[in-house]
Amino acid sequence: MEAVLKNVASAVELLAVAAHTSDAVSQWDEKTLSRAFHWARYCEYVYTRFHTNSAGRRVVEKQLQHTNARLRDAFTDYREVSFMDLPRCEHLLLLALLSNPQLPISTMKILFGKKDVTSRHYDYKEVTGLCSHLIQCKSACKVLRPFSGLSAVGADAEVQGEMLMKRLDALLSQGSDPQQAEHFLHSVLLLSEEAAHHSCLVITAALLTASDSGTQTSSHSFLLNWLQKEHGVLQHMGSTLPSAVLKDLARAHGKFRDAYFSALKKWASEMKYSLNDGEWLPEGTAPSLSFQEMVEHFSDLFDACPSLRRNAEDELLALKILDGDFDARGLSVWGDILSELKK
Amino acid sequence: MTELQQPLSQLQETSEPLLNAQKVQFWLDKAVAWDRAGGAHAQKDICRHLRGLTDFLKQVLAQISNIGSTAETVKELPFLGQILGRLCWNPYVTVGDTNRGLLLQCLWGLYSENPTNAVERKANQWIRKVLCRLAAEEDNPAAEILMKNTCVPPKEYHLRVLKKMIKQHQENIGKTCCPKKSTDPSCRCSCDVIQTTSEAFVPLIDCPEASPVICSLLQHPGTSFIDALSEDFLDALNSTDSSLALDETALVSVWYHSLPRLEEAVLDLLKSVISTGSAPQNLEQQVLKTQLPKACAQHCSMFLVVNDIFRSILRQAEGNLVVQSVIQTFTRCFLKELEELEPRAKTYICTFTMNNNLLSTGKSQTSTSLKAFFPQSPPSLLVPLLTLPSG
């Protein structure tokens, strides 16, 4: 353990040197570069080894605090390294070097050189073309993104959903405070109005990741509980996601089916009949779904979950009766929905 | 052999003419237009011009090396910085190995190791800034926040997203309505998946991660109709400098769709045998490795092209024993492949020089095979030539 702590301290120091605009980096050649990235990858290994071991993690965190304090005194503008930064050390090193004007151009050329994945004949192949390959991947994603219609939510949301679930699994299985998991969901999903649609796609993808282990089932459950509390998100999902996706979600998760049904009822109850338009119109905080769209949502939900249909229809009938049990159109939204559904 | 170098010189690049103001203006206008239109809208135009862009960047690189000083280059080509800068942010340009490599070389060419004036210092700063932003900048804030909170580095994230996109395209190609086992040539795929996918992958021809989709496109039964694959895709296949990471079937498909690539493969074989001077026992291995005999056995049209090339070379290199042995070895390998393909029909094929020397012979029971392989020769001539020489 002592050796590990010493190595972590050295790696963090190296990162600080890489970021610092002194003469040290101007001496970095391909050998130094390769060794530096080797140390960065060591940090990733330390994270993998200790992130589920809370005792070991605490010891590493203590070492990091100690090293950070020392380096804060030695370097101005020092950026502290936390335990959560360890798996991204390679990227932090790259950022530090690329922003450092002292890095020799010959060393930079190695990072932007051609990455030949098949060659076994050159040295430092881990660092050669590192940036080039990254630029290629980012560009390829941009070029292919307009064709995202191939998947229901898009490749980005799918990968982000997987990342979300993996982190949620880790947080929940560590037996840590559930508030930490909630805080995590808040930080990554509730970003802004503009990002709301994308968050819905990520949540959808996360909920549709194959649940083949106990941990994933409880993570799905946690996410669904969180979703039920976030009415805004559920509303957005219900009103913007394609019906095929909503059907998949309802089929996969009973909790989602129930939450979605409750939301639909709430939105329907807020509709008001307009005599001028001869139609039910959304009002208040309800999403702007037309009456026809509302009916389609109910219909799709019952298609996806036949077990829900009987009880749901009884419920809607009871609501119609409460409204006065009228058959004429425009007097009870429940009656009108039921008669549309029977067609 | 000087005679041999004549057809080979077709492959040599002619020296690049110097840049003129008109050309630079053309590419500046293009770079600005592509920037303004934004990726997807300009896609078709960008794809049409990728090859021209490669030539332009090669000329720029040559010019930068000729001039030798950044300050002088900036004076002579004042819009160069703008062009290169805009192209750096165009993903259709930076996705392919060739254009990205040339763009980077242009930037290195403009970097001064020991800057002596303000122009050079500024250029150096700009180049470092562009490179740092290209590698490090994330344009999706939501993704960036998630990466930080889930401890996933950008390199891993972008590669995962790309692999997923590639997989989805492959599955989509696999789902197209042409049944794989169909041998009915009149069965046409009614969906335009092949067309749109090949169009989408034009800029990714020389992106190694994309090779599974490129292979799938080339191997799909629907692509036996020329117009299934996009024109721009075929053009890009023809002209890419980098060697494609293709498997056997895809390689044969490339040759089937691209005559220049087939010709190139034949000439490459001859060049490599002549330059390395293969021992006879290695020659067969070398020929088989090219996949040319197999391809010719599978597609008569390819055999005809290869046959023509060999005939032309034999005429020019009369008496050259190396060339003769390559052609003999090729014919032997071709016969073996044909035998494996059609074991019931024993095939005798004649290939002969202008001097009517029989190099190798075979005998065919199916006259249709013969006619297909030798459409110009009347049966009355073929029949005596089919007879094995005695002694």
TrEMBL record, chain A:
GO biological process, one term: interstrand cross-link repair
One Pfam family per UniProt: FANCF
Record's GO cellular component terms: Fanconi anaemia nuclear complex
Top-rank taxon: Eukaryota
Protein name as annotated: FA complementation group F
Organism whose genome encodes this protein: Oryzias sinensis
UniProtKB/TrEMBL annotation, chain B:
A Pfam family matched in the record: Fanconi_C
Matches recorded under InterPro entries: FANCC
Signal sequence residues: none
GO cellular component: Fanconi anaemia nuclear complex
Gene Ontology BP terms: cellular response to oxidative stress; interstrand cross-link repair; nucleotide-excision repair
The protein's name in its UniProt record: FA complementation group C
